[in-house]
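Raw record, unedited: Isopenicillin N synthase-like Fe(2+) 2OG dioxygenase domain-containing protein
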Amino acid sequence: IQILSNRKYKSIKHQVLVQHDQTHLSIVAFCNPSQDVVIRPLPKLINEKSTNLQVNFV
């Protein structure tokens, strides 16, 4: 999330406590991407003020 949002949102470590009487949804992202995939901020989140925050990962 931090990379895709161009650091607008910070990735944090977290722990989930499950309440068995309620339904819940989990979403996993970037689970073993190919080694040649470039992960970078979404283009619409890059502007004149944030271009210096742009980071690409391979």
